[in-house]
Amino acid sequence: MRFFCGLMLLLAASTMLWAQREPCLAGIDSPDCGIKVTLDPPLSGNLLPVPNEVTIEVPMRLHPSKIQLNNGPIGGVADDFKLLAETSHYKKVKGVARFTMEIKSCPETAPAFEFYIIAPHFPYPIAVNAAPYECKASAGK
After folding, report:
1. What is the pTM of this model?
2. Domain limits of the chain?
3. What sign for the dihedral angle of Cα 105, 58, 64, 20?
4. Residue 119 CB: number of other CB atoms within 10 A?
5. What CATH class is the domain 27-137?
6. Which is the most buried residue in 32, 51, 72, 134, by most CB within 10 A?
7. Cα–Cα distance between 12 and 127 in angstroms, integer?
8. Which of 26, 25, 54, 60 is nearest to 41 (CA)?
9. What is the pLDDT of residue 74?
10. Which of 29, 37, 25 is closest to 69 using CA atoms?
11. In 12-123, which ranges are E strands?
12. In this predicted model, what pLDDT tens digit does every residue of 28-82 receive, in sequence order?
């Protein structure tokens, strides 16, 4: 019994130590985090032109399982955002998981977007964008 309790304490301590060293817990804008977002076409301020191909590269050390795209009203709070699309398919490229998602049109009732990374080692989803992107249909498309 003592051995089991000691083993559990050791496991808890090692988990806390890992969490303290993970730079993404401080925020994805941390230079050591390594999450990279590429938009084609690129953002214009906070406006996300659609159609758009979004590529999110996540370091494999985070063990990402999927990327989620949530949408909600402009100026809404987190509870207003609902799942719009998700993908669990990625391509492993040089130590990163490269997720690709296509946004074809703007939802009429909820034109703000938030991206999240789901990883089983994290107690909560990692928000990719600090503020929601506002969807804007490209002219002539």
Report:
1. 0.77
2. 27-137
3. negative
4. 19
5. mainly beta
6. 72
7. 26
8. 54
9. 86
10. 37
11. 36-40, 47-50, 52-59, 66-72, 82-87, 90-93, 96-103, 112-118
12. 556 667 889 999 999 888 899 999 999 999 999 889 999 999 999 988 877 889 9
Greatest alpha-carbon span in the chain: 70
Task: Using the structure block, give the residue that is written with the tokens 């083993």.
Answer: 7
Out of 22-26, 46-50, 108-112, the most confident range is: 46-50
What letter does residue 89 receive in the DSSP assignment?
-
Average pLDDT over residues 97-119: 91
Q: Beta strand pairing status for 133-137 and 47-50?
A: parallel
Cβ atoms of 78 and 132 closer than 8 Å: no
Length of the chain: 141
